[in-house]
Amino acid sequence: MQLLSWIIPFLTFIVLTQTGSVIKDEKVRYDNHVVYKIKFSNVLQRQLLLQLAKRHQSYNVWNESPSELHLMVSPKAISEFEKTLNRANATAEIFIPNVQVLIDNEHMENSRATSTFGWKRYNNLAEIEAWLDEILEKYSDVTEGFVVGTSYEGRTIRGIKISYKEGNPGVFIESNIHAREWITSATATWLINELLSSEDELIRELAENHDWYFVPVLNVDGFVYTHEKDRMWRKTRQPVSHSTCIGADANRNFDVHWMENGGASDDPCQFDYAGTHPFSEPEVKGLAEYLGTVKDKVNVLLAFHSYSQVLLSPYGHTDEEVPDNFNDLLHVAKAYADAVEALPYGTNYLYGSTAKLLYMSSGATNDYAYQQGIEIAYTVEMRDRGTFAFVLPPAFIIPNAEETLIGIIALLAECKKLGYLALK
Ligand code: 0X9
Ligand code: ZN
User: Which end of the chain has fewer CB atoms at under 10 Å, N or C?
Assistant: First the structure.
């Protein structure tokens, strides 16, 4: 009895999570989890590998396109994965040999950087919010805070509007709807700072002649969870009744062709679970409601994601149809991609229709915005192409943000030329 009470506090309790493993109350670990890049040469191979990837939780889809799949495989599933590869006669390259090493390096770099808010490391939600408060106070004459709603766990989802004068066209930027895509909120906060503090003529012109609506972290619960528990978390944190799996893919939860054409999953354990019904996730409902109040003043919407360096335009739910202004959407995206590529970093962006370039995905933010009358609406998938994937080292925050800014300048110039920035 005495021995037992002595031992119990020292016993650790292993809990299996969606992919990694966690020692109770500690962070999920991804030791020896490998990310493979699988290249398909026919549809059958794709089908076989995707079937495997979706079969159980030793697999986690990181990126998908018609010709390629990036898949994280837990160590215990590697031999099964290799057998399936052989059976499919497909080849795979190891992209990331050990995900935990990337996470550890990121953690080390984050703790080495200065303790004040900045872009040399990734900031957590509390830091972002404290910084937002400072900014709102410092620039009170041209900024105002707004509230998008309340998350499942009761957090306030906040935004900031920047407006230097009446009658500007509106640009709406949503970021970190996917929790693990940290580069998106880091970039959004950097942009806010540039718009408010830069003395560069081009940036002043950009800042002062548009109204800016930023939601730096939409999926607040998921974001906090990535900092505190599981770096690779993607979805919201609302439990699903009758399932042990938690959360929905907020970017499949908008009421726009919801669950159509296989553009999302009805399995709560999948990365692209659409939720029980459109707007079942309070974060998504909140964004849609807020957007409803400003959409008549918003000309352009950008939904920030990572990774793969693409600009995706509607539609996500069908590859058989494109929007009426698809050619314009291509022109505008080309302007962004060309401007980014012309920088010394030389980063290459592809662009095109979501369903054609990427995969069927229904219920996403930019498709919803488009349906609501915001005719220029993209998903921006930022750096990189899989070398570091979601765990992009902090040293890349500023380069990524700089090229996003240059891309946006070119995008808006093209929108103006094509007549999309007129008052609605
Ligand atoms: O799958 C997604 O939600 C996005 N890619 S990510 O790797 N960041 O998860 C792309 C969504 C694009 N889909 C639509 N606009 N429909
Ligand atoms: Zn994403």
Answer: N
